[in-house]
Structure formats: C-alpha cells, structure tokens
Inverse folding.
C-alpha cells in the first residue's frame, strides 16, 4: 500500500480512466524525496490543479489538492504482515464540507480510486507470494518506492 501510494507511474494502467487524465503517471517528479519521506509532485491540470503526494515512512500518507483546498489522509494500521486496516479521511474547508452533494461525489470518487488500487495491490501481493517472484528494476518514475525500500532495509 505504501509503495503504491508513493509512485504515480501506475496511473497509466491502474487509474487510466480516473487519475491518469488529470495527473499523467509519466509526468511525475519524486526528486524532492529523501531518506525518510516521499514528496511526489504532479503537473498542473488546467481545472484540477496539481496533486501533492507525501509519505513519511512508514505509514503517514497524504494526498493534497490545493486547487480544491482538500487533503486526503490514508490512516493505515498494520494488522499483520499482509493485512492492514485503512481509513481514508477527507479533510475539507468548512464551506466545502457543508456541500453534501459535493462531499458525496468526492467520497464516491475516492472509493472508486481506492478500489482500483486494492485490485492492483492484491495482484502484486499474490505475485510476491510466488516462490519464483524476483523483484525487477524500478523505473525512475518509481523513485519513491526506491526511497521506501532503502528505509525498510536500513530499519
Ligand atoms: Fe493508486
């Protein structure tokens, strides 16, 4: 889940109809990331603005959309080596939160995106269980994943 959150390369396939049109996976920049965090920047979309994705290892995950004035916090609680509890918390300015229809639309969008991620994460997890699984090289677009793996290896 953290690796998925920390790169947007997967927008190209996993979120082809949702996030890719807004923030193309091939145009993200993780160069501001460091040894204990991911700072993943996305290009400005004419209507949606930019998307900032931040991870402080191991489990603090935020997605910030300044044009909407909102932040989404992925509150992860590990339940075991392969299980987590996830609470997705939307943080909105009071005037936005008062619009019940807009909140319902945002909630539905977040749920749809999350379902796309969960399907991908479950397939990756199943693949990693294979005795023949070998981790391949990471793309430069997965620099955030590299930072996370370095942090795990050093911990
Ligand atoms: Fe995703």
């Amino acid at each position: 889940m953290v690796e998925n959150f920390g790169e947007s390369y997967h927008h190209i396939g996993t979120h082809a109809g949702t996030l890719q049109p807004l923030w193309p996976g091939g145009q993200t920049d993780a160069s501001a990331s460091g040894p204990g965090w991911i700072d993943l920047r996305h290009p400005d979309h004419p209507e949606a603005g930019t998307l900032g994705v931040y991870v402080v290892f191991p489990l603090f995950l935020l997605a910030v959309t300044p044009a909407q004035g909102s932040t989404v916090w992925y509150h992860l609680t590990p339940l075991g080596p392969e299980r987590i509890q996830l609470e997705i918390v939307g943080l909105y300015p009071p005037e936005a939160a008062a619009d019940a229809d807009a909140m319902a639309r945002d909630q539905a969008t977040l749920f749809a995106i999350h379902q796309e991620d969960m399907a991908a994460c479950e397939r990756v997890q199943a693949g990693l269980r294979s005795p023949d699984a070998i981790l391949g090289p990471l793309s430069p677009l997965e620099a955030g994943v590299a930072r996370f793996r370095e942090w795990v290896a050093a911990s």
Notes: The mean pLDDT is 95. The beta strands are 37-41, 52-56, 60-65, 70-80, 83-91. The longest helix spans residues 100-128. The chain has one domain: 2-154.
